[in-house]
Amino acid sequence: xxTVVAVYTGQGLADPLKAIFKELLPDIRLVNxxxxxxxxxxxxxxxxxxxxxxxxxQYFHNGEELGADVILNTxxxxxxxxxxxxxxxxxxxxxxxxxxxxKAVEGYSRxxxxxxxxxxxxxxxxxxxxxAKEAGKEVTLVNGLAAGAFDALVSGKPADHDxxxxxxxxxxxxxxxxxxxxxxxxxxxxxxxxxxxxKPVLSSPRFGVQQVKELLDSL
Length: 219
Hints:
The protein has helices at residues 14-24, 37-45, 50-65, 79-85, 98-107, 118-135, 149-154, 158-173, 190-197, 204-218, and strands spanning 3-8, 29-34, 70-73, 93-95, 110-115, 140-145, 178-181, 201-202. It has 219 residues and is of the alpha/beta class. Helix 1 packs across helix 10 (204-218). The longest helix is centred in the middle third of the chain and has 18 residues, at 118-135. It is globular. 45% of the residues are buried.
């Protein structure tokens, strides 16, 4: 039985991803490492501070020690740490948003990136630009920062969070051919955003697990 270790910086995505793993990879051993202090520290700093990077790399080492065939980094805010950690870890690390970004670049030229945090928006935009450069494509990125949505969510006002996200998506969609959701936790709104904007919406959880599956099949 092959083992996948998923590393989380918060609680919210673990159950939805577990369901996708059960659907696409029912026969693997899934181990979750969750440290919800990580995303709090990133939000407070507005970037990935050194302490978060060190802890995250340690969790990747832990994943290797747990017998992982593949490690899944589930947080887009710390994706660049995962890139650097690939030089240090002896098993493949998949970033949850890697395939999503590649698909966005492959199919579209005007890409809106929707996020509730600047600390997630910026690395996701850099990732898409990197994928465009690899593909030799020119893309236009539209800033879809849903200001105030994160604060509404942590204040126990999910309806306000969703309303801000919806409004931001509608505004961004006027200038884009596709909407990319920078945070995996936003995937639950994928269908509603497609209906409201009339544009395709890409979210990372299923793409991330699909990439893990493709990698496991090749091992």
